Each structure stands twice: as C-alpha cells, then as structure tokens.
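FORM 7B: Structural annotation worksheet

SECTION A. Query
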Amino acid sequence: MLFTLLTTSTTFAAKKETLGEVVTERNESICKQKFTQELFTQQRIFSSNRNGADSRRIAERKIEAAREKYNLTASYCDAYDELRTFNPESLERKPGDAQFN
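SECTION B. Predicted structure
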C-alpha cells in the first residue's frame, strides 16, 4: 500500500512538472473573492464619468453578462470567468442601458 501511494504521488509530481502548472480544483470561495474584486473594478469603470462612453458601456455589459451567468449556474467561478472574458458584440444602446452624456 505504501509503495502504491509513493508511486502515485511521484507520478503526479512528475506530471505537474512536465506541464509546468499548478493543478487545483475550481474553488468557489477563491472565485467569489476574485469575482467580487473584479466586479468592483468593473463597477468603478462603469461609474466614473472620467472614462469614455465605450469603456463604461463595456463594463456595463460585462457586469450584466456575469450576473446572468451566475443566475444560470450559481457558480462564482463561472461568473468570474464570464466577467473577465466577455466581449460584447455591440456597444449600441439597448433598453435598460445607462445613458451617458
């Protein structure tokens, strides 16, 4: 049993070194922290009138997409991924969007 355990851990360590990456599961607690930080960042971009209309609209769309993803999956990891990677197809104003002067 001990031999099997040592062999398995050695093999796993070798695979990690070969890939050059740390293998971790998606941790909802960590994702929640990251999601919250990124959501605040996007909210600051959206709220600041110092930013251009396009930047603000992109932030608005990212926030909306992340909320929709969370509502569908109840996963902070999925919502965080959506918030980081979402690219809006269009910046045209649609019903419910904020109006920028």
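SECTION C. Observations
The mean pLDDT is 81. Helices lie at 2-19, 28-47, 53-73, 76-85.

SECTION D. Sign-off
Analyst initials: ____
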